[in-house]
Amino acid sequence: MPPDHPVRTARGLSVVLGVLLALLVALPAPPAAAEEPRPGLLRIAHLSPDTPRVDVAVTPAAAPGQVLTDPGPVVAPALGYGAVGGYRELPPGGYAVSVRAAGGTGAPVLSARVDVAPGQARTVVVGGAFADLALSTVDDDLGAPPAGAARVRVLAATGSGPVDVAVVGGPVLASGLAPGAAATPVDVPAGRYRVAATGARDEPALELQAGSVVTALVLDGADGTVLRTVLDAAGPSVRPVGGVEAGGRSRTPARGLRGIVAALTAAAARAEAQPAAPVRLRLPSLGVDAGLAGAGLDATGALVPPADPATVGWFTGGPRPGETGPAVVTGHVDWAGRPGTLHRLGAVVVGEEVLVDRADGSTVGFRVTAVDRYAKAAFPTEKVYSPTAGAELRLVTCGGPFDPVVGSYRDNVVVTAVRVG
Question: 23 by DSSP, 3-state: which?
């Protein structure tokens, strides 16, 4: 054939490249290793009004017949009244929690066994009056609240009698709650409220972000009862629907008014006290170094990657990378026969690093903890978007077999990473 058909030749090469990319993405996943039990979460709260600062240590519990001689490393140093330490991930099992006076040495003045189940979150309370100091354990509910709401749980830590707590003009958060006790969590629509509490001289403000899980501590103050809130976990203000279309034939998804308004509203609600905006994503092991832009929802509520296959997007309706909660980043595996930035995402290995550069010049690092593939028809929305107690990252692109009817892939690859440092 005479060499005067460059268009046909280029088109044929594009088709071949497209088929090769589809075959690469559709390669079967390697056999899954036996899944390790999910870690549990444990934290310490000092809620004894007349007890000075304490050091709290956590160590695996002694086996039957053994005596614990070493209380282990201090995980909550110089913890004062009203303070709640951060969650620590622990392998499921039994643990000895030991309390000493801050800076003290020698045998613990108080200790107790605490059991942690896979995926369970618990708070160990140092509570009661100093003369009757005791350790108790409270189970924490970090599950996702309903859309547009926050979950609030009241924990009483006063030296006086039972307390009542209620949103002014709204729901009751606690009724007749004894010191050291925890109320049943209540789902409250996101917003700013005034709160009435037994013994409080005024009505303190309570600001609730959609998707958050909050503990409200009722404490003794100099002039009466005070309310202090602790963010237990955070999730997206708006939860996307279904899987992510991040590969296949070229098309520009129509981004509906619903998605634009939801993303802008959520971003505005989170604007205060946030880390700087993310601007770049790097996966050194894969050679990925790509610009990072905002991503929103289409008219159906699905998350939409940036149209540029060389760019990745972070979901502006959720936490920013490095902020408490699951920050979600998505990008194309391919686009119109060309590889996208995340075309090798499924090859990342647990333990490798992910770096996010921010607009203020800082960088936040993450460590990969899981690489999964799910059918889009069974996308695990709860697992990907539910609130988390720490800063986590979700990287999402397409994977699995290519479906020529819809022009995309049947699965999504989801990489989970946790913040380090």
Answer: helix
Instruction: Give the pairing of strands 54-60 and 93-101.
Output: antiparallel
- pLDDT tens sequence across 52-86: 999 999 999 876 655 555 566 788 999 999 999 99
Given a cut of 50, the residues of the chain with pLDDT beneath it are 1-34, 250-272
Best CA proximity match to 89, nearest among 157, 36, 33, 143: 36
Judged by DSSP in three states, 347 sits in helix
Q: Between vectors from CA 168 to CA 163 and to CA 171, what angle results, nearest 5°?
A: 75
Pairing of β 325-330 and β 391-403: parallel
Six-digit token string for 254: 């129509």
Output the pLDDT for position 140.
96
**Gap between the Cα atoms of 353 and 294, Å rounded:** 22
Please give the CATH superfamily to which domain 236-420 belongs: Sortase (2.40.260.10)
Cα 179 from chain centroid? 30
Cα 356 versus chain centre, distance:
16
Q: What is the pTM of this model?
A: 0.82
**pLDDT of 183-240, one tens digit each?**
999 999 999 999 999 999 899 899 999 999 999 999 999 888 999 999 999 999 888 9
Return all residues near 121 (Cβ < 8 A) that are at least 6 apart: 40, 41, 42, 87, 139, 140, 141, 142, 232, 389
Q: Are 25 and 334 in contact (CB under 8 A)?
A: yes
Do the beta carbons of residue 243 and residue 373 sit within 8 Å? no
Which residues of the chain does CATH 2.40.260.10 include? 236-420
Two structure tokens written together for 110: 């108080």
Which residue is listed with tokens 């309310």? 227
380: Cα separation from own chain's centroid: 15
Q: What is the pLDDT of residue 264?
A: 44
